[in-house]
Amino acid sequence: MVAPSWIAQLLQFDREGDDFCIREPGRSSAERLFGGLIAAQSLAAAGATVDDGKLPQSLHTYFIRGGRYDADVEFHVERIRDGRAFATRQVTATQDGKVILEMIASFHHPEPGLDWCPDTSPALEFDAAVPKAPVMDFGDLFDLRTMPTDDSTFAVSPFWIRTRAEIEDDPLIQACTLTFMSDFGPVPAALPPTVKLRADLGFAASLDHSIWFHRPFRPHDWHRYELRSVNHNDSRGLTHGALYDAAGSPIASVSQEALWRIE
């Protein structure tokens, strides 16, 4: 019997009805739960209540307060609507009785129709990117190729990324993997282009995170992640971007606002 992948293991819940629990996610020594992790787990909980055949269409997440790795996380799923083509879920994640995340997720049964996207020139060609050693929380689970000038302790967009291990051929688990990895790049990308990124720049945290899932995702294939800063004021930076496959088709669009208290 093949052992579950690392992401499948992180998505293993205790379940009672529409209430789910992750027992002490404690893989990391970081002070705060990685936002991509808790978002991926919330999407998995929502998806577990949806009829087979409906796949993640979009999610909109608010990170309410920082979570910890040494305490259980509970997820309550509210079934907002079940239609023939779409299903909508609301997920509330709590830890020690306090809300740490709210998510609205939509699921859609695939339908025949047009398939179009604009032609875009890559901001970083794969052959021009260089391997980067893991420098971030959970970074050892991924292969990264970044700009030769990226000497930061982050993954600075644009970059190429893939999982090191194969992931189950399950659309929900693959969407959860995309959700997990989509949180690697937005915080540094939310800075104005005029601000040089450095480790002691100040306090940063994800405030909210949205994903629109466009096309099937194969986590072990190389994908290009491009993000751009579109606004920064009131200690908040907004970034938009997309994850592209090797052929240049957008797999998912991403938007995040990050808090930056620059010292």
TrEMBL record:
<dbReference type="InterPro" id="IPR049450">
    <property type="entry name" value="ACOT8-like_C"/>
</dbReference>
<dbReference type="InterPro" id="IPR029069">
    <property type="entry name" value="HotDog_dom_sf"/>
</dbReference>
<dbReference type="InterPro" id="IPR042171">
    <property type="entry name" value="Acyl-CoA_hotdog"/>
</dbReference>
<feature type="domain" description="Acyl-CoA thioesterase-like N-terminal HotDog">
    <location>
        <begin position="30"/>
        <end position="108"/>
    </location>
</feature>
<dbReference type="Pfam" id="PF13622">
    <property type="entry name" value="4HBT_3"/>
</dbReference>
<dbReference type="InterPro" id="IPR049449">
    <property type="entry name" value="TesB_ACOT8-like_N"/>
</dbReference>
<feature type="domain" description="Acyl-CoA thioesterase-like C-terminal">
    <location>
        <begin position="119"/>
        <end position="259"/>
    </location>
</feature>
<dbReference type="GO" id="GO:0016787">
    <property type="term" value="F:hydrolase activity"/>
</dbReference>
<dbReference type="Pfam" id="PF20789">
    <property type="entry name" value="4HBT_3C"/>
</dbReference>
<comment type="similarity">
    <text>Belongs to the C/M/P thioester hydrolase family.</text>
</comment>
<keyword id="KW-0378">Hydrolase</keyword>
<dbReference type="InterPro" id="IPR003703">
    <property type="entry name" value="Acyl_CoA_thio"/>
</dbReference>
<protein>
    <submittedName>
        <fullName>Acyl-CoA thioesterase-2</fullName>
        <ecNumber>3.1.2.-</ecNumber>
    </submittedName>
</protein>
